[in-house]
Amino acid sequence: MERKVLLLMENKHWWNNSVVYQIYPKSFQDSNGDGVGDLRGIINRLDYLKKLGVDIIWLNPIYKSPQVDNGYDISDYQAINPTLGNMADFQELIDGIHHRGMKLVMDLVVNHTSDQHKWFEESRKSKDNPYRDYYIWRDGKNGKEPNNWGSYFSGPAWKYDPETDQYYLHLFAPQQPDLNWENPNVRHSVYDMMNWWAAKGVDGFRMDVINLISKPKELTDGPLTGDEKYANVEKLVPNGPRMHEFLQEMNRNVMSKHKMITVGEMPGTTPEQAKAYANLDNKELNMIFQFEHMGLDGNSNPALGKWNDQKTKLADLRANFTKWQKGLMGTAWNSLYWNNHDQPRVVSRFGDDSNEENRVKSAKMLATMLHFQQGTPYIYEGEEIGMTNVYFDKLEDYVDLESINAYHQLVDDQHLLDGKTMLKYLSMHSRDNARTPMQWDDSKNAGFSTGTPWEKVNPNYSTINVEKALTDQNSIFYYYQKLIKLRHELPVITNGDFQLVAGNEDDPAVFAYRRQNADTTLLVITNYTDQTLQRHYDVPDGAKLLITNYADDAGETIRPYEAKVYQY
Ligand code: NOJ
């Protein structure tokens, strides 16, 4: 047997063939009519998730928070946000998850807190406050910010605080001050908090922008390359000098004590770096979320950031997936995802939501492309029924601060785009696309809430909803259910080698790859286009058609958005 496969088997974890389902609690299910999803709403839907077959549930932040960034601004790590419920609800939720044989992963947001966290309230009081060093404070330079860094959410990354005549660093919103990980007290406060949740039965953590916690040694100006007003922190901050030291310390203090699953959100990370963070030797994290495949539709003008209307080319996508599959094979572990609460909907972005047939076909095709790769698949709420972008056409409909700030910066402030163009870009890339309420049925507000939803419901809920999906054996839901089941049943999906089919490297329309272990081969064929194509692949006699999104097999004729997998 190949050395790589052996290595993987030696390092087997309980979650290796698991599938994760991500819940954005505010948008999943409201149980009390206040228009905001809550923990009781999730409890009421656990049987649905069990039916889908997922193993692990990841909840976006449910902690006490002023909700400037929907819970990514935490004011108390050990309390539940009142709009979502209370600790008793949480206990019932985790018991309900465990009772059904599933596990729970919580979001860990420790690059920053809310400015209403008691640590920050103390920190800003005086320069000699015991909590001063919990955050990153600097003097201004010539009456301006300490350096030229821009925040991820537009504007400068520093805010002046008159109380002590200094600036504090905030890589995200001003209400999200960055913690100072150089301070051992910060680190140990975080580890204590993590162990406290582990004692409550939490099975793992998804770590928010964790590769930003170690800041560069000197916080000096970054380069400006074009029209941008501030230096791009995405290029300056990730993967700082003490990252491995901090994660290893966290692992010794927390992860090594529990049977956990950990995934670090790490924008700007390459396979080489991922091999160190998510090595099978298990000294740091189990896997990371990398973002390269989310940036392939990006801009040539850095000042526009992610705002554009390009569709990702299959050639780029395939090259990227292949790089990560081959790069980590036998050394580290991949996470596999198309969607999350920060990304537009997969079927609208990479597939085709222009008509019902193409929506269903392309959603299944994309699921097939991803779910046969090595790693841990993440399904984002609504992906399993093919929910689409909402395509708001007015700025007033947007709720997310990233979208609203970007509009004002690029249109009103810098005049780099006209309003109409920016609205088009928002409709394709805004995070609000992912955050519209879950579409349960065709009743008022898609069955999400009897009140007024905090974020508008996508009007297509009358045709795209869970109730409808469950009554149709050919729905996207049942296709995902089958993909999950296959991952549980076929070890080759977990441990097989990955190879592109010979000649596929240059195919502009079809992505074809093989997974192979000592006794099984899978041949995965996916058509990324709406064209009918002719392709020849060597399929041995007797090969079984394992799964397909068409009713039959047309052999060498590959139909629009067709996906099929042979097993032999
Ligand atoms: C990444 C999270 O996924 C995103 O939603 C959040 O706004 C930022 N980190 C800041 O916490």
TrEMBL record:
* Membrane-spanning segments: none
A biological process from GO: oligosaccharide catabolic process
Keywords associated with the record: Glycosidase, Hydrolase
Q: Does the keyword Transcription regulation apply?
A: no
Question: InterPro entries given for it?
Answer: Beta_galactosidase_C (IPR013739), GH (IPR017853), GH13_cat_dom (IPR006047), Glyco_hydro_b (IPR013780), O16G_dom_2 (IPR045857)
Domain called Glycosyl hydrolase family 13 catalytic: residue spans: 22-435
GO MF entry, a single one: alpha-amylase activity
**What NCBIfam families does this protein map onto?**
PRK10933.1
Q: What family does the database annotate?
A: Belongs to the glycosyl hydrolase 13 family.
Protein name listed in UniProt: Oligo-1,6-glucosidase
